[in-house]
């Protein structure tokens, strides 16, 4: 008879039970781990096709010429954006009702693609947002999140990651001045995720850098508007990215991109894409639609996006770097006596802009003699449209004073060294507010000394051609009340200037005195 320990039997049972439980617990752990791993693989594959931070397929350009993007490969053509009707359209709100996006960043600091502070507002899997701003000149929209552009359809689409109850649309003219003829609008759409009639277009190209959608044309070709309507707003929109931004240009103007290629090269490292002929569906995490012009040929630091307080001084410094301009200060003059030969070498240089058409100076030789008598070395210049910008910039930068009648030629003040002088001759007809707005305020913000000389009616050729009893002579206010067309006709289009050199002498003296105090 085998003797069994009555206390050992329960212990053995407990051992068998413990071993069985341990084996099943291990199996459950392995099964759970495999289930988590499988879920992770499925989710990551789903987001690989649409993630805005995927590896970019674009490459840095060699030359800034607008190109048509290559077609999508077989099987890659995405569905086109449907439902471009007016349902859900809203107007952009005034600037004071909006907040600028993104934390402050150092000007011009380059950042790695996909690691952008300014995109922090749109996390990889959030719903994204559209922030639209209305300014006195422009409408712009910033789109954050899963953003897709369709160039040939002129659409920018925000695809929500989760359910969004409302579909919304904004119609934006991407030129810096709204309501320009001949420039099609771009439709910005915020999709609702439940609308089967508005499917999201599939990505064919995914970018890791943000994009700016802009439009050329309009007033471009006028030297002043080249800067006021395009170069300055583009600098403001793109400088924070340090070149890591993709430009998509509608209404493409290849000649303009060629003329200002040096500037565009420094604002983007990538080929400028022809939006109107781009048949790809491009995916970004942040797209800015439109350029915002704060003021004529000017920058309002508080309105600069991204928290970077850029100014016109930053813009002119950027131009000096771009065109390798040597002078960052005007001539240094002192009040102490110097030998005659040294004094001759130290004469400040004055560039006199001699317009070849309306608003021209009819007594240039007298003005030259007056300026030389005041102590300047004078050069007469008449910059032409086809002059290379770098050559013109180098020439202007070598002068200490720029003198000219109100007109596009004074835009060259952007190439003067800081501390130099701009003298604007304002034609007759109460044009002082316009002259101050377009050249006076910008010059001051560039760090230049601005002087204004308003001519009297006796210095205007209108007195001879129209007679003293004409409303344009007797009552300029009545001409202004008649509208801009009449103002432009008489005071800008039919008027030349004969400067009274005796009356003008104190203005020249002020310019020289300013340079002596530098």
From TrEMBL:
UniProt biased composition (Basic and acidic residues): 90-121
UniProt main location, coarse: Golgi
Keyword Transferase: yes
Membrane topology listed for this record: Single-pass type II membrane protein
Recorded coiled-coil stretches: none
Glycosyltransferase 61 catalytic domain segment(s): 307-423
Record region (Disordered): 52-122
Pfam families tied to this protein: Glyco_transf_61
Entry's transmembrane regions: 24-43
Subcellular location: Golgi apparatus membrane
Pathway(s) it belongs to: Glycan metabolism
Ranges of Gly residues composition bias in the record: 72-88
Entry-linked InterPro entries: Glyco_transf_61_cat (IPR049625), Glycosyltransferase_61 (IPR007657)
Keywords: Glycoprotein, Glycosyltransferase, Golgi apparatus, Membrane, Transferase, Transmembrane, Transmembrane helix
The keyword Glycoprotein is annotated on this UniProt entry: yes
Name used for this protein in its record: Glycosyltransferase 61 catalytic domain-containing protein
Source organism (scientific name): Triticum aestivum (Wheat)
């Amino acid at each position: 008879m085998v003797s069994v320990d009555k206390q050992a039997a329960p212990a053995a049972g407990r051992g068998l039970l413990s071993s069985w439980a341990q084996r099943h617990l291990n199996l459950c752990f392995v099964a759970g781990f495999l289930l988590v791993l499988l879920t992770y693989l499925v989710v990551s594959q789903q987001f690989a096709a649409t993630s805005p931070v995927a590896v970019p397929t674009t490459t840095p350009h060699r030359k800034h010429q607008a190109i048509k993007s290559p077609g999508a490969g077989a099987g890659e053509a995405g569905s086109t954006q449907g439902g471009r009707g007016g349902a859900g359209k809203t107007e952009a709100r005034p600037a004071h009702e909006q907040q600028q996006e993104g934390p402050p960043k150092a000007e011009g600091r380059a950042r790695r693609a996909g690691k952008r502070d300014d995109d922090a507002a749109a996390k990889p899997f959030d719903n994204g947002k559209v922030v639209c701003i209305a300014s006195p000149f422009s409408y712009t929209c910033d789109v954050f999140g899963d953003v897709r552009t369709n160039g040939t359809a002129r659409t920018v689409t925000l695809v929500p990651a989760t359910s969004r109850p409302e579909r919304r649309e904004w119609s934006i003219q991407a030129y810096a001045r709204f309501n320009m003829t001949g420039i099609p609008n771009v439709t910005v759409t915020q999709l609702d995720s439940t609308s089967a009639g508005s499917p999201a277009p599939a990505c064919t190209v995914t970018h890791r850098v943000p994009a700016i959608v802009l439009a050329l044309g309009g007033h471009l070709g006028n030297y002043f508007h080249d800067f006021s309507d395009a170069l300055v707003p583009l600098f403001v929109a793109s400088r924070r990215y340090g070149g890591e931004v993709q430009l998509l240009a509608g209404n493409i103007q290849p000649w303009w991109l060629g003329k200002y290629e040096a500037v565009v090269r420094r604002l983007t490292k990538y080929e400028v894409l022809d939006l109107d002929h781009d048949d790809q569906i491009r995916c970004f995490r942040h797209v800015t639609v439109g350029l915002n012009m704060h003021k004529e040929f000017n920058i309002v630091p508080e309105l600069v996006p991204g928290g970077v307080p850029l100014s016109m001084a930053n813009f002119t410094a950027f131009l000096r770097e771009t065109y390798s301009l040597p002078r960052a200060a005007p001539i240094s003059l002192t009040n102490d006596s110097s030998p005659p030969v040294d004094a001759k070498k130290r004469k400040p240089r004055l560039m006199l802009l001699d317009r070849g058409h309306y608003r021209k100076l009819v007594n240039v030789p007298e003005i030259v003699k007056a300026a030389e008598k005041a102590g300047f070395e004078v050069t007469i210049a008449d910059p032409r449209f086809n002059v290379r910008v770098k050559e013109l910039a180098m020439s202007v930068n070598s002068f200490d004073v720029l003198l000219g009648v109100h007109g596009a030629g004074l835009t060259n003040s952007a190439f003067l060294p800081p501390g130099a002088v701009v003298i604007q001759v304002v034609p007759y007809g109460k044009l002082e507010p316009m002259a101050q707005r377009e050249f006076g305020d910008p010059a001051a913000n560039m760090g230049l000394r601005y002087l204004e000389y308003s001519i009297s009616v006796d210095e205007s050729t209108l007195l001879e051609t129209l007679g003293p009893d004409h409303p344009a002579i007797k009552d300029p206010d009545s001409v202004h009340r008649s509208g801009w067309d009449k103002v432009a006709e008489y005071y800008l289009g039919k008027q030349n200037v004969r400067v009274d050199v005796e009356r003008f002498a104190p203005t020249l003296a002020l310019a020289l005195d300013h340079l002596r105090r530098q």
